[in-house]
Design a protein that fits this description.
Elements: H1 4-15, H2 26-40, H3 43-46, H4 51-59, H5 68-80, E1 88-90, E2 95-97, H6 110-114, E3 118-124, E4 127-132, E5 136-141, H7 148-161, E6 167-171, H8 180-188, E7 195-204, E8 207-208, E9 212-216, E10 227-232, H9 239-249, E11 253-257, E12 267-271, E13 277-281, E14 283-286, E15 302-303, E16 310-311, E17 314-315, H10 316-323
Parallel strand pairs: 5-6, 6-10, 10-11, 11-15
Antiparallel strand pairs: 1-2, 1-13, 3-4, 4-5, 7-8, 7-9, 7-14, 12-13, 16-17
Length: 326
């Protein structure tokens, strides 16, 4: 999943080259957008959306007298119907990130969680590790972004360091995605044999293309055989959710926390004729049993509602994970 900062930077650079007085037909802009969504969005299928009815409803509200702000809000309302955290809409004067409108609660508090962790090491901007009770390894990943080789070296070093621990806790409660290959590289270190991970299909004019199979393969350097608990939440997104699919199929891994966000496919960035930028999920992702978690999210094995994650300065999600090792 693209970070808000990177999206804003690219939009600022792009819009800096455009006139603020761009003249265009709002009806043409709306029609082009809806045709693009019809062509590229995998969410129409996975979320059981009656797209034709939605287009008809919002088309009836489009007219050339709408202000830019009113037109932006109309497009925003239509795109929010997908309830897809990947969907963004960005103009020179306003932004919309769908996840901000889904009513999700974060189930992480770094200050509280850090009280449980000792010997914390910061490996990069998005990866930290430490120990819990001297017997459990703790790995925090805020995303799966970054260079594949560099991240893989970091994962390898951390897992090697934890080789004598009785278990690992992987904290992905705010992992907002990135490269699926980084998620794959980490999962491979917990995989004993070649395993079908999931399949993907890209949206095309005829529906979807053929399934592409993704596999987990044992890492050639290191394997961690002991119990692992993954911490997830509603802000576990995209590649973070694909990791959760892998966690579901590996026998030595359990998931604690809340259901993941609800969007696992890859993202496509597009541009309206008036220069506004928007993102769509163009890829359908199915688990090995053919289940599509788009619009739903991957459920945990041990549910702790995000609203109950922190009570009286205690991390209930992490404490539940620790108890699973006893």
């Amino acid at each position: 999943m693209l970070s808000k900062l990177s999206i804003l930077i690219s939009v600022i650079l792009f819009l800096g080259c455009r006139s603020n007085n761009l003249e265009y037909s709002k009806k043409e802009a709306f029609d082009e957008l809806t045709q693009s969504v019809s062509r590229y969005s995998a969410s129409i299928d996975s979320r059981e959306i009656n797209w034709d009815s939605l287009v008809e409803h919002y088309d009836s509200r489009v007219n050339e007298d709408l202000s830019e702000k009113e037109f932006f809000e109309l497009i925003m309302d239509m795109l929010l119907e997908f309830r897809d955290p990947h969907v963004h809409l960005i103009s020179s004067f306003d932004t919309m990130y769908s996840i901000d409108y889904l009513g999700y609660s974060r189930n992480n508090d770094e200050l509280v969680t850090s009280q449980y962790i000792s010997n914390i090491v910061t490996h990069s901007a998005n990866i930290k590790s430490g120990y819990i009770n001297d017997s459990l390894g703790y790995l925090f990943c805020s995303d799966f972004k970054g260079d594949l080789n560099i991240n893989n070296d970091i994962y390898e070093s951390i897992i090697s360091q934890f080789s004598e621990t009785k278990g690992l806790i992987l904290d992905f409660r705010v992992n907002d995605g990135g490269s699926v290959y980084n998620a794959q590289n980490l999962l491979n270190k917990f995989t004993a044999q070649r395993t079908l991970w999931h399949t993907t299909q890209n949206r095309n004019l005829n529906g979807f293309d053929d399934k592409y199979e993704w596999y987990l393969d044992p890492d050639p350097v290191i394997f961690y055989p002991n119990k692992i608990v993954v911490l997830n939440g509603r802000y576990t997104i995209s590649a973070g959710e694909r990791f959760a699919i892998g966690a579901k199929i590996l026998n030595n891994i359990e998931i604690v926390g809340d259901t993941t966000s609800n969007t696992q496919g890859s993202v496509l960035g597009r541009e309206m004729i008036n220069g506004w930028k928007y993102n769509l999920t163009f890829e359908k992702c199915l688990d090995p049993n053919g289940i599509n978690y788009g619009g739903k999210g991957i459920p945990p094995d041990h549910l702790i509602n995000s609203n109950n994650a922190f009570i009286n300065n205690r991390d209930n999600v992490l404490e539940k994970a620790i108890k699973l090792f006893n």
